[in-house]
Design a protein that fits this description.
- The two termini are 64 Å apart.
- The chain has 334 residues and is an all-alpha fold.
- The protein has eleven helices and no strands.
Length: 334
């Protein structure tokens, strides 16, 4: 056990001695109490571990065999505790390394053109549903929620992402980047399709309150901007993207609130168009901000090798402005 302990990384040993090493102090105290009353002149010329072994063997010869066995048993129990600590820390370090390596690999894959497009489609599909829901009349509060087709699709697609995670965590010799990229793309494309039933359901319900082919064109323009926004967000840091989005939400908040308030009271085509236009102005401003920053900022760095906000529910009545602004499709009208 002692050899196994000494073979461990010194940093890990230090951490375990600090957290679990009190028992070794007890071992030393018991040894001192047991041997301090004895004399071992034959060991005086020796030093270090060699002297300790000499003294312990001499103690056994002097009739302290039972006591030495008890001391060894306690020492081994303590050493087992320390080795368990090192095994735990080694496992944690290995897991952190695998996670960091997987993140770097995922970032590399995501930077590929086809992968980026698939990821943008998945994010934009989810954001598109949130946006459409944010424009729904208060009478449609809770419409098309928890659709079984959507839930089943997303649950089924989890296995694809699980397959991706397993591949990303493999050792270098076993890792296949091309395979991982294909799984990444398939999983994101499938996720984008999962939101289609909910989107179509909401679109149908919108027709009861002024929705038409004409308002659908305003909706489509906003959806295209959402794709542009998410694609540009990948060109800058998360903090920069979040700041760019939230400041534009704050800027357009009152106009979106006013447009929604009017539409909620008079749910006709004209005012629904106005609502889509208010959101369009906000989304266009976000895209312009992100584009200018992505062109001027250095390329977004990959994750270091170490270890959008969900849309809240829309109120049925015209709300007051929030105390704090966050990046969300619905924040501008909350």
């Amino acid at each position: 056990m002692q050899d196994a302990w000494e073979a461990k990384d010194s940093g890990i040993r230090d951490r375990c001695e600090l957290s679990d090493g009190d028992c070794m102090m007890e071992v030393r105290d018991q040894r001192f109490e047991l041997l301090s009353t004895q004399s071992f002149p034959q060991c005086d010329a020796k030093s270090g571990a060699e002297r300790e072994r000499c003294e312990e063997n001499a103690a056994v010869e002097q009739g302290l065999g039972k006591e030495m066995v008890s001391l060894y048993q306690f020492h081994n129990k303590c050493m087992s505790q320390l080795l368990e600590c090192t095994a735990k820390l080694e496992a944690e370090a290995l897991e952190k390394m695998k996670v960091a390596r997987a993140e770097v690999r995922k970032a590399t894959i995501q930077a590929m053109s086809k992968s980026e497009s698939a990821h943008v489609e998945a994010v934009a599909a989810k954001e598109g549903v949130a946006y459409l829901r944010s424009t729904m009349h208060p009478k449609e509060e809770g419409a098309c929620i928890n659709l079984e087709a959507v839930s089943q699709c997303l649950a089924s697609n989890k296995s694809k992402f699980g397959e991706l995670d397993a591949e990303l965590r493999k050792e270098d010799g076993d890792y296949d980047e091309s395979f991982a990229a294909s799984v990444f793309q398939e999983a994101n494309q499938a996720e984008a399709e999962c939101y289609t039933p909910e989107f179509e359901c909401l679109l149908d319900r919108a027709k009861r309150h002024g929705g038409s082919a004409e308002t659908d064109r305003g909706l489509k323009k906003n959806l295209e901007l959402l794709k542009q926004r998410e694609r540009l967000s990948m060109r800058v840091s998360e903090e920069t993207a979040a700041n760019c989005k939230s400041t534009r939400v704050a800027k357009h908040q009152q106009s979106v609130i006013a447009a929604y308030t009017t539409y909620a009271r008079q749910p006709v085509l004209f005012f629904l168009k106005k609502l889509h236009q208010a959101f369009y102005d906000m989304h266009q401003d976000q895209v312009s901000c992100l584009r200018s920053l992505s062109e001027s900022a250095p390329e977004k760095p990959a994750p270091a090798p170490a270890p959008a906000a969900p849309a809240p529910g829309k109120p049925a009545k015209p709300p007051a402005p929030p105390a704090q602004t966050k990046d969300s499709l619905l924040q501008a009208k909350r």
